[in-house]
Structures are given as C-alpha cells and as structure tokens.
Amino acid sequence: MIEQTLTVVSLDGATAHLEAQQKQACAGCNGRCGSQVFSKLFGTAKKTFPYRFEVPVVVGQKVTLALDDSHMVKHAFAVYMLPLVLSLVFALTAAEVLSAPEWLQIIAAIGGGFTGFAIAKSRVKSLRHDIKVIKIHPISLPLTQIDGD
Keywords of this protein's UniProt record, alphabetized (predicted)? Predict the structure, then answer.
C-alpha cells in the first residue's frame, strides 16, 4: 500500500479537492542533483485530487489515503515497455519477414511505437485505482498562551 497525507483545499458538496504537500526530490545533495535542477526548471504546479467522502470534512483538514500498489508493475510495463517492444517487433517483422529496405524498417518501427503508445493510452484510461481512506485527522486548534494566567 502506498500512503499519502493530503490537505483539503476546497469543497464541492461531498467532493473534497485534496492537495499533497510538495516534497523535494531529495534532500541529500543540497540542490546540486539533476532531479532538483529539473524540478526548478519545469516548476512545481500544485494539482488537486478530487475525492468523494462519506463523512463531512472541512477545508484545512488532513486526510491519509492509501493506494493498492499490486497492479503497479503491470501498468508501468504497459506505459513504458509496450511502445518499445512493439517498435522492435514491427521493425524486425519488416526486416526479416517482408525483407523491406531500411527506410521502411524505420517507418515500421515508428508505427509500432505509435501503436504501443495508443494501446497503453487506452489501457491507462480504463485504469481505476482502489483508493481507501486510512485516517481523517481531526482539526487541531492552535494553542496560545494568555498572559497573566
């Protein structure tokens, strides 16, 4: 299970829009690594995640959600490896079975890559994650010290 604590930023009826706390790519290199350079270069636009709750929540409340990661490898294979594998299969088929010239093999490889991309895109659209609410954190009021007490 992958767990993440999110903050409720807005409400739309029973649907709450949640926002994750921004995390640095890594804190061990003090901003000299490639991942932090890319995050600074491309920005970190905050995105909200809509979720429908059974119990009422309020803006500012923290919620811990969990995602089942059992299908993660299968979906990662579809997104990353399927275009590459189909590109190689199409190129090898054009070369060995059809005895096509090199320029047709390149076009076949590009066609295989686009075919793999289209299949992966259709699989990702049909993907439904099983997200569970682990904990709804209570809203804590800030404690202040009153002078003279």
Answer: Membrane, Transmembrane, Transmembrane helix
